[in-house]
Every structure is written in structure tokens, then in C-alpha cells.
């Protein structure tokens, strides 16, 4: 688990992890991201935001970065990111379906092309 102050940075880091994990011999990663307040204590974080991020991560498949709607809205407009809606998804332990999005990075144009 990682904690970021900026949702956009969390998404970019998640995309980096799922892209690089197989190349380093690690199993394919899957990442779930939710944005909101956390309780920090003794070097760890707790609370509803952490629980939702864990539920979203459980939903994500290998190689996916899945984010909550709050994360998408707070990531701001960005040329490096794209989000594809997955729809309202039922997550274990969550009262009502949560709109989720798969994150994608947009490659930078090749200046030599």
C-alpha cells in the first residue's frame, strides 16, 4: 500500500508499477486507487478511504489500474492520463455500487517520428 497526497501522482505511479512489474520478474500487478481522508498512525494509514482502495484493488485484474470516481475527478485534466468508465461496480462490503474507471497512460509523442 502507498499513500500519495495528489491523486494524479497515485495513478501515474500505479501505471508505472503495472507496466514495470513483469519486466523485473515480479508477477503482474493490479492497483486500486481511492481518494479521500485517511487516519495516519505509527507509520500506517487507516480508514474508509484505505478500505475502499483495497476493495477496488481486489476488483482490478492483473495489469489494471482501477480508480474511483473521486480519484478521476481529483486527478484533474492531464495529457498523460485517460480514464475509461467500467460502470457502477458492486464491491464486497460496500453498500451500493461504486462507479469505477480503468486508468491508461497516454504515450508521449516520439520527437523523432
Structural features, described:
The termini are far apart. This protein has a single domain, classed as 2-Layer Sandwich (Alpha-Beta Plaits). The protein has helices at 7-20, 48-59, 69-74; strands at residues 31-33, 39-41, 44-46, 65-68, 81-89, 98-105. Strands 1-4-6-5 form a four-stranded mixed sheet. The protein has a two-stranded antiparallel ribbon with strand order 2-3. The model has no long low-confidence stretch (mean pLDDT 91). It is an alpha+beta fold and 113 residues long. Helices cover 28% and strands 27% of the residues.
Number of domains: 1
Strand content: 25-35%
Topology as a string of helices (H) and strands (E): HEEEHEHEE
Question: Ends: how far apart?
Answer: 38 Å
- The named CATH superfamily: Nucleotide cyclase, GGDEF domain
Q: What structural class should be given to the helix and strand makeup?
A: alpha+beta
The CATH architecture classification is 2-Layer Sandwich
Q: What number is the mean pLDDT?
A: 91
Question: What form results from the Cα inertia axes?
Answer: globular
Radius of gyration: 15 Å
Amino acid at each position: 500500500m502507498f499513500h500519495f497526497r495528489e491523486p494524479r501522482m497515485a495513478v501515474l505511479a500505479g501505471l508505472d508499477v503495472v507496466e514495470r512489474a513483469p519486466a523485473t520478474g515480479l508477477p503482474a500487478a493490479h492497483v486500486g486507487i481511492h481518494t479521500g481522508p485517511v487516519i495516519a498512525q505509527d507509520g500506517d494509514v487507516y480508514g474508509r478511504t484505505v478500505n475502499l482502495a483495497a476493495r477496488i484493488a481486489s476488483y482490478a485484474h492483473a495489469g489494471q489500474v482501477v480508480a474511483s470516481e473521486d480519484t478521476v475527478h481529483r486527478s484533474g485534466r492531464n495529457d498523460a492520463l485517460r480514464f475509461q468508465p467500467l460502470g457502477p461496480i458492486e464491491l464486497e462490503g460496500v453498500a451500493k455500487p461504486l462507479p469505477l474507471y480503468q486508468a491508461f497512460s497516454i504515450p508521449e509523442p516520439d520527437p523523432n517520428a
